[in-house]
Amino acid sequence: MATRKICIHGIHDPVLQKIDGFDVAVTTTKRDELRTAIGIEDVEAMILDLDADDAFDVIIETLEVKPHLAIVGVTGSNDVSRIIHAQRVGCRQFASRPLDVRDLITALQGALQDVPAGVRSGDVESKTFAVVGSTGGAGATTLSCYLSMALAEVAKTTALVDVDFEFGMVAKAWDLSPRHTIFDLCQFDEFDRQNVEDVMIELPSGVSVLPRPAGIQQGQEIDESSLKEIIGLLQTWFPYVVLDIPRRLDARTGCAIEMCDKLLIVCQQTVAGVLNAGRLTDGLLEFGMSLDQIEFVINRYNTKIHSVTADQLEKRVNKKPIGLVPNHYKSVGAASDLGEPVTTRNPVRKAIADIAAALSGDSSIGSGSRWVSSLGIGG
Ligand SMILES: Nc1ncnc2c1ncn2[C@@H]1O[C@H](COP(=O)(O)OP(=O)(O)O)[C@@H](O)[C@H]1O
Ligand SMILES: [Mg+2]
Q1: Claim to verify: residue 331 and residue 365 sit in the same structural domain
Q2: Are the beta carbons of 143 and 131 closer than 8 angstroms?
Q3: What pLDDT is stored for residue 377 in this prediction?
Q4: Do 93 and 218 fall into the same domain?
Q5: Same domain, 162 and 276
Q6: Which sign does the torsion angle of CA 175, 179, 183, 189 carry?
Q7: What is the dihedral of CA 253, 259, 260, 261, to 10 degrees?
Q8: Residues 357-370: pLDDT tens digits?
Q9: Ligand 1, atom 15, residue with closest C-alpha
Q10: Residue 142 domain-assigned?
Q11: Which of 4, 30, 134, 324 could cross-link to 276 by cystine, CB 3.0-4.6 Å?
Q12: 375 pLDDT higher than 50
């Protein structure tokens, strides 16, 4: 799994190159460099020189940009009043000079433990869900789209990234004709929130779509480091980020999976669906993912099918599916062809809203339509 990204300000010491388990994403000396860097990089902690004259101002300014950043101050002084002051402005842990790498790691771990659960380095609590199908056409894009809408219902806003750079259909699901795409974003040497917002298409539902590139060739030019940077940036201001990922295990999907809190594997009630869900899960567990980070959804669920059941999937992957989404071909197929989502009363949308509620822990999601859809009425 990914190491935790940190930033170092105003210190140059060879010890800082050896901090196991942490990735020094950026090193700065000037305050404006630091401000820019932490706006872009998805850093979780900062080590700074507490003996510098402007150290307290640096801490205050930094926390204005990233209120949950875990700060470790390095000092060679025994001035207790200075330590108290540093603590009051938001420095969480201290390390003394000369620097000792083990001491520094302990301080970083301690500082990070104080970050409230679920809070990333940015200014919002953010959760990322990646969605993949266990077979082609299993319903990953359908789930991604309705999941985003359900999450945006309570969170007001949700980012949906079409990571299927070759054949992604997210923009089509809303009949959008994007002028710019993730490819244009990757043409910048560096990008910030403004660049990303300029490319995303915000829908009335609160879902902001980051569309796939226009051509296949463009899609192949996007590398995983750009994707990682973009997702990291989205996580700093969207409460939810949904990633519709293709059924291809390359560096880019690997990066998307690494950056998600939960991976949803969408599976149909077929032998291939169950076998591939099992095979994918085995592979992910071998790569170091835990079963807690994976959820299973059976799409186009049909109680009349007895040959392949939800129990069989559970037996294969050792986990109960988080949701069973009914088959409603007439409405869902027509809606995706027309680029117009089904209504909130639709049983497919209702079942996906229930999944959103389970994932987010917010039971109010979709509750307005629950009694109607439970009767099976819906467009
Ligand atoms: N629950 C469902 N009931 C009926 N049709 C569905 C359902 N989910 C998806 N579909 C249809 O199945 C097709 C494939 O779905 P899609 O979401 O594009 O799959 P994937 O992204 O996994 O390739 C689409 O035409 C879609 O409208
Ligand atoms: Mg798809």
Answers
A1: yes
A2: yes
A3: 33
A4: no
A5: yes
A6: negative
A7: 150
A8: 999 988 888 764 44
A9: 139
A10: yes
A11: 134
A12: no
Q: Residue 59 is part of which domain span?
A: 4-113
- Of all ligands present, the nearest one to the C-alpha of 170 is 2
Do the Cβ atoms of 91 and 66 come closer than 8 Å?
no
140 CB less than 6 Å from ligand 1?
yes
Q: State the Cα–Cα distance between residues 116 and 91, nearest whole angstrom.
A: 15
User: Of all helices (H) and strands (E), which one includes residue 262?
Assistant: strand 262-268
As a whole number of angstroms, the distance between CA 346 and CA 149 comes to: 13
Taking the chain, what is the end-to-end CA distance rounded to the nearest angstrom? 42
Could you tell me how far CA 307 lies from the centroid of its own chain?
Answer: 36
Q: How many domains does the chain have?
A: 2
In a domain, 243, yes or no: yes
Checking if the pLDDT of 164 tops 50, the result is: yes
Closest atom, ligand 1, to C-alpha of 136: 23
Asked which of 113, 145, 171 is the last residue of a domain, the reply is: 113
Helix or strand (DSSP H, E) at 173: helix 170-173
Does residue 336's CB lie within 6 angstroms of at least one atom of ligand 1?
A: yes
